[in-house]
From TrEMBL:
Keywords: Glycoprotein, Secreted
Biased amino acid composition, Basic and acidic residues: 1-12
Example of a GO MF term: heme binding
Protein name in UniProt: Uncharacterized protein
Pfam families named among the record's database cross-references: An_peroxidase
Amino acid sequence: MGIDFKRTETETSKSMLTDPQKETERQPKMGVVSSELARSMLRSNVASNAEVQDDARSVNCLTQISCDDAKYSPYRSINGSCNNLNHPNWGTIFSPQPRYQPAQYDDGVNSPRTTGIDGSTFPSPRLISNKLFRAPGDCTETDHARTLMVMAWGQFTDHDISSTLPTLGTREQITDITSLIDGGSVYGNTYEQMEKLWDKNTDHLFENADGGAFDLASLNLQRGRDHGLPPYNSWRQWCGLPVGTSFSDLPDISKEKKAVFADLYRNVDDIDVFAGGVSEIPLDGAAVGPLFSCIIGNQFRDLKDGDRYW
C-alpha cells in the first residue's frame, strides 16, 4: 500500500502557511501512516473500532518527563510540562487533545464527515457560508456593544491553546502548542522559537505568507468536518439543551434561519455544529447562544481548574 505524503486536507494546507518545526512536520506523517493502518485493520475485520482505539492509545506514547525540579518552580515551563505533577504530559506541546464527544468520521478512522443521515452528500461549506452568513445586501451589521478588541482577544486566546495535528490510530488531534493560556503565541512553545524572538529578528516579524484569501465561515465548517465533530443536535444534547426534531421546531434559532437550514440540509440531524451554534439567538448580555455558551463555559472551566498556575 503506497502513501502519498503530498496529499493534504484543508487544515493541513492552512498549517503550511506557517513555518513548521521538525516535529510538527513529522507528526502528520506519523498520523497518515497510522490512519492508513487503522483503516486497513477495520476493512479486513482484524480489529474492531474500539480495539483500534486501544491500540492507538498504547502506541501514542509520550516522552517520559521528570518533574523533580519543576514541582517547586514558581513559573510555568516553556512547553507546558509538569503543570500537572501527577500527569506531567497533560497540556504539553505535541500531546493529544481530549474530546468532549467521540469523533464521527465517515470511515470511522480518518475521512471527514461528508454524508448525512440518508446517505446524501452534505452541502458545500461555501454554499452554507453564502446562504447563512451573508448579511442582507452584503452589508455588515454594526455591533454597538463591543469593540474590535473582543475579536482580537478571542483570536489571541484561541491561538494560544489550539493548533492541531493528526495523531495515531483513529484520528484525533495533537496540539503543537501548549493547552494552557500562557502567552505561547507571543513567545513560542519551544526554546528555539523563544530564542528567535530574543534575537530580535524583526525584519520578518510581521511578514505574511504568500497565501490566497480564505472564507472564514467556510474554513470553520470544513475544519469541523475534517476533525469529525458531531453535528449540532448531538452537541445540544450533550449540553442538556432541547433539540429540534424538525427544522421548524429548532430551539433558539430565528424563523428566517430555520428556513435557510431547511433549504440547505436534508435532515435536521445533519446540521454542522458551527452553522447551528453561530445561528442561535444570543443570550441576554452575551455574544453567543445557549450551545456555544455551554461549550465555551466548559472549556474555560477546564482551563482554569486544570492549570495550577492560573
